[in-house]
Amino acid sequence: MSLDAPQLLSIDGSPFTVGIAAARFNARLTDALLEQVVKQLHDAGVKKKNLHVVRVPGSNELPVAAQLLAARRKPDVVIALGVLIRGGTIHYELIAESATSGLQRVALDAKVPVINGVVVAENLKQAEERCLGKINRGGEFANSALEMAALKKSLSQ
Ligand SMILES: Nc1c(NC[C@H](O)[C@H](O)[C@H](O)CO)[nH]c(=O)[nH]c1=O
Ligand SMILES: CC(=O)[C@@H](O)COP(=O)(O)O
C-alpha cells in the first residue's frame, strides 16, 4: 500500500482554473474521488466558477475529455479521475495502459499538466481503501494539480 505521498506545498489556488474529467464507471468510488478532489481544491482557494467538471462513461474516455477540456476551457491543470478494477479479462489492464499513455500525451501535446487520477485496483477492497477509506487519493491528486498549476504559472512568466 503506497502511503508516502508528498506533503502539500503551501499553494494559493485562487488564481487557478481547473478542468476535471471523471468517469462514471464504478460511480460510488469515482464520485467519492471527485468529492475529495473538489474539497481539497476549494480548501486551497480554487473558486467554484473556475472548476470545470465533465463526466465520461469510463476511464477509457478520459484522454479525449482531458483534451477537450484543455482546448476549450484553457485550464491551468486538468485532473482525470477513474477507478479501474480487475474484471474477468485483461480489459481493465489495457484501459489502464491506454488511459495512462493517452493522458500523458494530452499533457505534452497541449502543454497543460494532466494529473493521472485513475485508481487501478486488483479488487473492490483495494479500490475502496483508496477512495473511501484511510487513503485520500483524491486529496493527493488535487495537491499534485495545485503544484503543477503553480509550476506552470511560475515558468510562464
Ligand atoms: N471496467 C472498467 C471500465 N470499463 C469501461 C471503459 O472505460 C469504457 O468506458 C468502455 O470500454 C467503452 O469505451 N471503466 C472504468 O473506468 N473502470 C472499470 O473498472
Ligand atoms: C466492460 C468492461 O469494462 C470490462 O473491463 C469488464 O470486465 P471483464 O474483464 O470481466 O469483461
UniProtKB/TrEMBL annotation:
Extent of the signal sequence: none
UniProt-listed InterPro entries: LS (IPR034964), LS/RS (IPR002180), LS/RS_sf (IPR036467)
Pathway the protein takes part in: Cofactor biosynthesis; riboflavin biosynthesis; riboflavin from 2-hydroxy-3-oxobutyl phosphate and 5-amino-6-(D-ribitylamino)uracil: step 1/2
Ligand binding (5-amino-6-(D-ribitylamino)uracil): 25, 59-61, 83-85, 116
Active-site residues, as the UniProt record annotates them: 91
Binding site for (2S)-2-hydroxy-3-oxobutyl phosphate: 88-89, 130
GO molecular function: 6,7-dimethyl-8-ribityllumazine synthase activity
GO biological process: riboflavin biosynthetic process
Pfam families attached to this UniProt entry: DMRL_synthase
UniProt xrefs under CDD domains: Lumazine_synthase-I
Cellular component, GO annotation: cytosol; riboflavin synthase complex
Catalytic reaction list: (2S)-2-hydroxy-3-oxobutyl phosphate + 5-amino-6-(D-ribitylamino)uracil = 6,7-dimethyl-8-(1-D-ribityl)lumazine + phosphate + 2 H2O + H(+)
UniProt keywords, alphabetically: Riboflavin biosynthesis, Transferase
UniProt EC number: 2.5.1.78
Similarity comment: family membership: Belongs to the DMRL synthase family.
Protein function: Catalyzes the formation of 6,7-dimethyl-8-ribityllumazine by condensation of 5-amino-6-(D-ribitylamino)uracil with 3,4-dihydroxy-2-butanone 4-phosphate. This is the penultimate step in the biosynthesis of riboflavin.
Protein name: 6,7-dimethyl-8-ribityllumazine synthase
Taxonomic source organism: Nibricoccus aquaticus
